[in-house]
Specification:
The chain has 304 residues and is an alpha+beta fold. It is built from seven helices and 19 strands. The chain has a seven-stranded mixed β-sheet.
């Protein structure tokens, strides 16, 4: 076990990389005496060496400052790319097909299909505890708890068997979706130009992320993690990453076949059943959304 979590915190001099050890926070550059480690991205760009330096530095720490009094930001500011797996849990694919009145179709993995991803913009990232102002933008704001993998080294055309070696760590993500903007009403039904993935997925605050990155060495099996989501203390999603159609390793191999993954890139691995669309429920102003993933932590945001 590494004994630390990698975070971004807000200091008097702006956002800086921090190390969370127990209930204390330390400045990463100061603790490691590595002046370049001022941002999480700079640490990720040196991850092969940095994870050794961070481990040694956190084994003998003194007094930091209280985590409860620290303003944590999204752990990566701002990721170069955010890849999001679509319909990657069988139960979620089923609930969305039923809700939209379309046939479910064959299992994509068993029928020889490939993982499918869309993109969120880096500026859609929201901090832990941030207020997300989206109800003026859409009327059907939906929640989606997802395991997020953070890339720690440049990766291209990696085989499935080696894919997890490029992951620096894991965090929690909420793939917020503006469901009423998923289709362009002025475009005929059936047209390939009718879906609007940008309007639905890329608005400001559409990707709450955090509260920190847990090193991959602390999570030997990302395909066996409980993940849950509550809205105002009512549980909405309760599942396990073992229910994914395509594993994280398969997703990394697929993405990297055509695109180079870089340190700080993030992969959202899909969400299980229980989203608002399937329930006919949507977020409203004042709602508090809490997500929790086993061995990683909890992420909470308020809707405005």
């Amino acid at each position: 076990m590494s004994g630390y979590k990698l975070a971004t915190y807000e200091s008097e001099n702006g956002s800086r990389a921090g190390l969370v050890v127990g209930d204390q926070v330390f400045d990463a550059a100061e603790l490691t005496q590595q002046p370049d480690y001022t941002s999480v991205l700079s640490i990720l760009e040196d991850w092969t060496h940095a994870k050794i330096v961070l481990q040694r530095a956190t084994e003998k720490v003194g007094a930091g400052w209280p985590l409860a009094e620290t303003h944590l930001r999204a752990p990566v500011l701002w990721p170069g790319a955010i890849y999001c797996a679509g319909a990657n849990y069988r139960d979620h694919a089923k609930e969305m097909a039923e809700r939209t009145g379309r046939p479910l179709g064959p299992d994509p993995k068993e029928s020889g299909g490939k993982p499918w991803h869309f993109l969120k913009t880096p500026r859609s990232v929201a901090d832990p505890g941030a207020i997300v102002s989206a109800t003026q933008y859409c009327t059907k704001l939906d929640w989606e708890v997802e395991l997020a993998a953070v890339i720690g080294r440049e990766t291209k055309a990696v085989p499935v068997e080696e894919a997890l070696s490029c992951v620096a760590g894991y965090t929690v993500a909420n793939d917020l979706s503006a469901r009423d903007l998923s289709q362009r009403a002025e475009v005929p039904v059936g047209s390939p130009f009718r879906p609007d993935w940008v309007g639905q997925k890329c608005f400001d605050g559409a990707c709450p992320l955090g509260p920190w990155i847990v090193p991959a060495d602390d999570i030997p099996d990302p395909q066996n993690l409980a993940l849950k989501l509550w809205v105002n203390d009512a549980i909405k999603q309760d599942s396990n990453t073992s229910e994914m159609i395509f594993s994280l390793a398969e997703q990394i191999a697929h993405i990297s076949a055509g695109m180079t993954l870089y340190p700080g890139d993030i992969i959202l691995t899909g969400t299980p059943a229980g989203v608002g669309m399937g329930r006919g429920e949507f977020l409203k102003a004042g709602d508090v959304v809490r997500l929790e993933i086993e061995r990683i932590g909890a992420l909470t945001n308020t809707i405005a």
